Amino acid sequence: MLDYVLLLVPVVFLVGSVYYAYRTVSLRKRSRKSAVTRQIAAFVVVGTVCLLGSLTAFAANGDAAAASAGSDIGLGLIGAALATGISGIGGGIAVGNAAPAAIGATSEDPKAFGKALIFVALGEGVALYGLLVSILIINKL
């Protein structure tokens, strides 16, 4: 029964946070920045609950060696996911800011296309580096 509750808690938190952010922006006419802040806070709460729930499940087995090995693998997978996710978010922000500027520079001077494309590719490189780090972490497990 506890397993089903632990599976249901993240879903409830995420659905509730999306509804609350929608209600905050559309009905109360508050800023989107506050909605994004609330979404990040909900993500942190869900991540903490999931991490503590998995560590509690391993500790409940009573086998210390299996719990230690399982939590090491689990924490390694969480690290790989964080490396990919955070670098993907950072790369998306970089490309989201660089691409419109590159389009604007190209429309004013077509010769600036090569230079502008380099800056967009640098933003995408950040996401690729995060993916490579996560592949290295997974291969180490």
Describe the protein in words:
With 141 residues, the protein is mainly α. It has 2 domains: 1-60; 64-141, F1FO ATP Synthase. Helix content is 90%, strand content 0%. The chain contains 4 helices and no strands. The protein has helices at 2-26, 32-60, 64-108, 113-140. Helix 1 runs antiparallel to helix 2 (32-60). The protein is flat. The model has no long low-confidence stretch (mean pLDDT 79).
Outline:
Helices cover 90% and strands 0% of the residues.
SSE map:
Blueprint: H1 2-26, H2 32-60, H3 64-108, H4 113-140
Instruction: Give the end-to-end Cα distance, rounded to a whole number of Å.
Output: 31 Å
Number of domains: 2
- Average pLDDT rating: 79
CATH-wise, what's the superfamily of the largest domain?
A: F1F0 ATP synthase subunit C
Which fold name fills CATH's third level, the topology of the largest domain? Answer: F1FO ATP Synthase
The name of the CATH architecture of the largest domain is Up-down Bundle
What is the string of helix and strand elements? HHHH
Helicity range of the residues?
Answer: over 70%
Can you tell me the CATH class of the largest domain? Mainly Alpha
How many H/I helical runs?
Answer: 4
Major sheet, described briefly?
none
- Which quaternary structure do these chains form? single chain
Counting helices, strands and paired strands, the structural category is mainly alpha
Q: How much strand?
A: under 5%
Report the uncertain regions. Answer: none
Rg from C-alpha positions?
21 Å
Number of strands: 0
Overall shape: it is flat
